[in-house]
Amino acid sequence: MNSGQTSCCFCDSLKTAGANAPWDTVLHDSGNFTIVPTKGALVPGWLLVVAKRHALCVGALSSPELDELKSCLAFARDLVQKNFGAPTIFEHGPSRAGTTIGCGIDHVHAHVVPLQFSLRKAVNDRFPRVEWKPIVDIAATRSLFELRQGYGLVEEPNEERMYWCSPPVGVSQMFRRAIAAEIGIPDEFDYRTHPHHSIVMQTLALLPQTSR
């Protein structure tokens, strides 16, 4: 491991073969990554692409891993698009373990979620000082990680480029906060206190069995 964590919920769920909870259900396995529903889903169709290797963020992955991640993200994007609507991809990218940017999970994972609004705009509505900068693609996060720059990364539907920002200091779960506020449940952003079990079950019910 390259993190200071003594325990990792993603590593633990991988060891138990996804038998613990509905958000551990493996929808797709690409070899080095799995696609699962997310605990605390605020809308149906919210999926995660999770690395099997314990690494801190996407920017900490090797070039071969990044290539596989892109393929797995394309699979997840297609799954969401066909069953729930146009997907937005985002990641909290901590530069080191134990920061608020990591949201309590210092293990690389990317979110793929159908949103009917701009996530970047929703973030700026809640955190007006956040500034977005374009980035060529997800592989460019390696440069940010090498500079020890924590980042929030977003790819919205029908956009050719991704955008990254430096999240507000001391704010955990920035993207979840923005989404929860946008859909009218601002106090339910935290996946730890609001796991939204029923929404996760709805996600699983609406996905075709062939995806599992």
Description:
With 212 residues, the protein is of the alpha+beta class. It has a single domain (9-211), classed as HIT family, subunit A, CATH 3.30.428.10. It is built from six helices and eight strands. A hairpin with a 3-residue loop joins strand 1 and strand 2 (33-37). The two termini are 28 Å apart.
Give the beta-strand count. 8
- Helix proportion of residues, in percent? 25-40%
Give the N-terminus to C-terminus distance in angstroms.
28 Å
Mean residue pLDDT: 90
The percent range for strand residues is 15-25%
The outline comes out as globular
Please count the helical segments.
6
CATH overall fold name: HIT family, subunit A
Radius of gyration: 16 Å
Secondary-structure-based class equals alpha+beta
Spans of at least 5 consecutive residues whose pLDDT stays below 50 are 1-5
CATH architecture: 2-Layer Sandwich
Strand order of the largest sheet: 1-2-3-5-4-7-8-6
Q: How does the major sheet shape up?
A: 8 strands, antiparallel
Element order: H for helix, E for strand? HEEEHEEHEHEEHH
Oligomer: single chain
The first-level CATH class name:
Alpha Beta
CATH superfamily: HIT-like
Q: How many separate domains make up the residues? A: 1
